[in-house]
Amino acid sequence: MKRSTCLILLCVVLFWGRLTALAQETIELRFLCFNEGNECEIYADLLSRFSQEHPDIAVAVEVMDEADIASHLSEAVDTGGGPDIARIADYPAFAGRYLDLRPLLADADSFAASFQAPFLEAMRADADDGIHGFPDAAAMVAPFVNVSLFEEAGLPLPSADSSWVQWLSALEAVKAATGVPYLVAVDNKDHRLVGPAMSLGARYFDEDGALTLADDLGLRAILEILNQLLELGRTPADTLLGTGKSQDYFARGETLMYICGSWKVEEVAAQVGADFDWAIVANPSGPGAGTGVVKATALVALKDTAHPEAVTKVMDYLAQPALIAEFSARALTIPAHLEVAASRIDYDTENESIAAALNAFAGEVPNLQDQAIALDLHPLAPVYYEASNELLRGYFAGEFSLDEALAGLKARLKRANE
């Protein structure tokens, strides 16, 4: 009897030990990541902390070139064996291959409300309310301004809600006081002009959501402003004709305003050095309010994962405001999370100009028009930009009238939509 009891106890102990071992078995997830700077290194660090809190889930960060990730995902659609999570730029291209996190998130509505809808919509294959990931780093356009020349003129910078009319008036006053050659410099690359056009009332999508340049009045307005400045010698001609770089004019202190994107902040800081003070200002407003144009990379969850619950835990963890703020600070990127963007980020740089500029760009995120997000995510965006760069250069060179340039641009879009 005693021997039987011991045998039963031994079996119970062995069985319980087996259950414990199974319960502690680690789920291993693959996260494909590409770098524009040090993003993957930061994610590896953040995820190591996640695994300390969740010892049953390990996440391996695999670094690939951006193009290789897209190729890998394309192949995985046919053969399987894809990652569980990926950092990707062209996330609309793989809509339909993503896991819907909504049923698994503890507070899906709060998660979705943290980001502007067009970012999340771009990940959907159908008109549903699925949540498949989130934008992790935004790149956007806003004006760089020479603050030292405003100070030399004894004039304040226009307020954040100032219109294009008010800004141009202020720039003229500073030019008169300082003798700076140019008011505004901008390269003839239309992603730099889309924000001003939208602010002045342009509508790029029709009622059916097609990219048609449905209302060109705002684009016409900014082009007329630039052409007038060109004729008056208040903007450098070579930048609008595609042979010069507006950044060089700004770095030399020859223009008061330079319209470009957040990806140029560190370059500008290095070029300008201590020569003068500069800042990023809010996009000037118009009938469409003030907006830049934006594109963001995203973290997405793949639907072929064998571990949807674990993947959801990882995505929910990385989307926490504190983690997004830390990631943005360490990577020197612009957060697309509305709460984080609206707060001050303690960027990991000793250069105060860089930190201030990135925070100013982040402050523009809540002001983005939906179409300013949707445009660069649209499959016909490359068609639009190629056509606009060609036709607008011809307009500034006097080869086309403005009517001809805009008619040609709409015709290209019409053909592409057919």
Strand and helix map with partners:
Layout (H helix, E strand, L loop, with lengths): L1 H22 L3 E7 L5 H15 L3 E7 L2 H14 L5 E4 L19 H6 L3 H5 L11 E14 H7 L10 H15 L3 E4 L4 H10 L3 E3 L5 E5 L1 H15 L5 H4 L5 H6 L3 E7 L3 H8 L5 E3 L13 E8 L6 H11 L2 H11 L6 H4 L10 H13 L5 H8 L3 H16 L5 H16 L1
Parallel strand pairs: 1-2, 1-3, 5-8
Antiparallel strand pairs: 3-10, 4-8, 4-9, 4-10, 6-7
Helix pairs in contact: 2-14, 6-7, 8-9, 18-19
Shape: globular
What Rg do the Cα atoms give?
A: 26 Å
- Which structural class do the helices and strands define? alpha/beta
What fraction strand? Answer: 5-15%
Number of domains: 2
Give a short account of the largest sheet: 8 strands, mixed
Q: How many runs of DSSP E, i.e. beta strands?
A: 10
Q: How many individual helices?
A: 19
Report low-confidence residues grouped into runs of 5 or more: 1-23
Which homologous superfamily in CATH is the superfamily of the largest domain? Periplasmic binding protein-like II
Q: Predict the CATH topology of the largest domain.
A: D-Maltodextrin-Binding Protein, domain 2
SSE string, helices as H and strands as E: HEHEHEHHEHHEHEEHHHEHEEHHHHHHH
User: Mean pLDDT, as a whole number?
Assistant: 92
Question: What percent of residues adopt helix (DSSP H or I)?
Answer: 40-55%
Distance between the termini: 86 Å
Task: Identify the CATH architecture of the largest domain.
Answer: 3-Layer(aba) Sandwich
What is the CATH top level name of the largest domain? Alpha Beta
